[in-house]
Design brief:
Layout: E1 3-10, H1 12-18, E2 32-35, E3 45-48, H2 51-62, E4 75-83, H3 84-90, E5 98-101, H4 104-111, H5 126-148, H6 151-164, E6 170-178, H7 179-189, H8 195-205, H9 212-215
Antiparallel strand pairs: 1-4, 2-3, 4-6, 5-6
Helix pairs in contact: 5-6
């Protein structure tokens, strides 16, 4: 499975202000800041999209990407832990995204590889279980050889280890992207066969503020 941890979402107030520029309809903007519990978090506030601004945001959203440019101004930073095969599909989305990833090889050489490092369904098929156990054992042996070898020989073991890393190996990435990119990803992936998309990704999207700006599921 995939794990998503939101680090920050920003730009919603600025996006809402900017979407009124084309028609200069600033006078009917009705969004506002609502204070959070001032006893526990003094000075903090929460941005509320007013009904007039909400209707315009909805109308522009339904007008298509050329009209809902305000979505590109809402930025999200998120930590993701997922198997390598998930990130292969995630990497389809290159425009409007940026990421820093854990070094797979650095992790392997330093920490080795264990069952808990994999997103693998143990217990379904004994042949598959044994094949994976044997693979992990072989990788561990090669890592041990790597650590005991001279620099020239290490390069040979490095390539062997890298070639054997299973697709289920879990990697962490810190990702930055915007609501427009997420809207595209949601539309294209919400019914994907992988649970990392149709369950984990969708569940995370539903935790984001004003997630209807991503899903298009506006309330009346």
């Amino acid at each position: 499975m995939a794990k998503f941890k939101t680090l920050r979402v920003c730009g919603i107030p600025e996006a809402i202000i900017g979407m009124r520029n084309p028609l200069k309809s600033y006078d009917i903007s009705d969004s506002y800041y609502e204070p959070i519990d001032l006893k526990t978090r003094p000075g903090f506030s929460h941005f509320i999209i007013g009904s007039n601004d909400y209707r315009l945001a909805k109308s522009l959203w339904k007008g298509g990407t050329e009209h809902r440019k305000y979505l590109r101004m809402i930025q999200v930073w998120v930590d993701i832990w997922a198997p390598r095969y998930f990130f292969q599909e995630w990497d389809t989305y290159k425009i409007g995204t940026s990421a820093n990833s854990e070094s797979t090889m650095h992790r392997l050489i330093k920490d080795g590889i264990k069952k808990e490092d994999l997103d693998f369904e143990w217990g379904i098929d004994s042949l598959a279980d044994n094949a994976m156990k044997n693979l992990l054992s072989e990788i561990e042996s090669l890592i041990d050889c790597y650590k005991k070898s001279d620099k020239k020989t290490q390069e040979k073991f490095f390539l062997l280890i890298k070639g054997l890393v299973p697709e289920s190996f879990i990697q962490k990435r810190t990702v930055n992207l915007n609501y427009e990119v997420l809207a595209t990803m949601y539309r294209q992936r919400k019914n994907h066969r992988l649970p990392q998309w149709n369950t984990d990704f969708v569940s995370w999207i539903n935790t984001l503020p004003y997630n209807e700006l991503i899903t298009g599921e506006f309330h009346d």
